[in-house]
Amino acid sequence: MTSHAFRASILHYLDDPRLQGESAREYFEDGLLLIENGRIAALGPYSDLIKTLDSHITVEDYSGHLIMPGFIDLHTHYPQTEMIAAYGRQLLEWLNTYTFPTERKFADKDYAKAIATFFVDELLRNGTTTAMVFGTVHKQSVDALFEVAQAQDMRLLAGKVMMDRNAPDFLTDTAQSAYDDSAELIERWHEKGRLHYAVTPRFAPTSTPEQLQKAGQLLQDYPGVYLQSHLAENRDELAWVATLFPNARDYLDAYEQFGLLGPKSIYAHGIHLSEHACQRLADSGTVLAHCPTSNLFLGSGLFDMERMHAQGVRFAIGTDVGAGTSFSMFQTLGDAYKIQQLQSVSLAPDQSFYLATLGGARALSLETHLGNFLPGKEADFVVINLKSTPLMAFRTGTCQTLNEVLFVLSMLGDDRLIEATYILGSKAYQREN
Ligand code: GUN
Ligand code: ZN
């Protein structure tokens, strides 16, 4: 058995702070995290726990740093890494102008592997240890990403884009080939180690009803796989869906008709939704991925968290790179705060970091494995350097409370805050100073 321990300030969430207040979080100013065979063995005050440890166990001293569970990114596109920050368009034009030409390159497996490697490195340097990721229409794009994630032993979810209309010929499959390629990938990768497959129709406009039916069939034929797609992001998109699916009562119904809702279905955005659609999301346990930097970047609209809470819709946070403008969960939470401010709502810092950790794990139905430091969970965590920049050191030095520190991290933070990232108790990233 391999054991090691980490000394630092340690924070994690046991429940949703919106419902449970401060009792939802546990914080040890001078804490010790004990890890055995890649899993959490114990957490407590340093002064108590150190006495119980065998003398052979090494203690890594991160005093002055803050340890938290690894961040969970509910929605992102690895092929779009190279076109992050592409100027000046809203969703549909942005897809045609920038996204589709870029995604074409992933027909080449070697190219895909190189970008997947860069992407996973970037996740780790930002403290993101789990992500739900779009590939491209090419099945080899997903092989490339899973190979890289497997080499890092990361818990990662991904899928091949299904897209059989309204896209260039070089990026389309067919209803049947999408089924066959997805099935092949599911058999090769789903539940292999820490990997999970997500059936991935891009969004309703780029799939025929026949293809969405095949997506539903995949969920039936392979119980336990996930589904990821996009929903109600942009007003022009909504109008387009209404013309493409004249028999659907609304955008959500274009998916619902084909059995694509449920607790393992994750839809990015969900900005422009009726009360009735929210109710069907809630009733089916379907999850939304709120992607704040993307929504601001593409001018898509303001996600209404209060309404989702009121109606019981599950959600957590995604970066949506490359429409999203950062890999950093800190920057993403910063924009989430601002989006709520524009609606006269103040997102509490505890709520933000809950959403990025345990909230994300719950949204993915992975909370038995991930999200906090309860004994037996997988030891994916980040070490945060509160003095990573002169401004950060100066500002956190003036904070009186943990809430203030957390808020400052989410407003001013970026990848420079991440001192190290651990996967299953092993260091996967170390910042070079
Ligand atoms: N809707 C369909 N495809 C995409 C995509 O790649 N990015 C975003 N933000 N929205 C989409
Ligand atoms: Zn997206």
TrEMBL record:
Keywords: Hydrolase, Metal-binding, Zinc. Belongs to the metallo-dependent hydrolases superfamily. ATZ/TRZ family. It comes from Nitrincola nitratireducens. Binds 1 zinc ion per subunit. Catalyzes the hydrolytic deamination of guanine, producing xanthine and ammonia. InterPro entries: Amidohydro-rel (IPR006680), Guanine_deaminase (IPR014311), Metal-dep_hydrolase_composite (IPR011059), Metal_Hydrolase (IPR032466), Metallo-dep_hydrolases (IPR051607). One of its GO terms (molecular function) is guanine deaminase activity. One of its GO terms (biological process) is guanine catabolic process. It catalyses: guanine + H2O + H(+) = xanthine + NH4(+). CDD domains: GDEase. GO terms for cellular component: cytosol. Its cofactor is Zn(2+). Residues 67-395 form the Amidohydrolase-related domain. Pathway: Purine metabolism; guanine degradation; xanthine from guanine: step 1/1. This is Guanine deaminase. Its EC number is 3.5.4.3. It is an enzyme of class 3 (hydrolase). It holds the Pfam family Amidohydro_1.
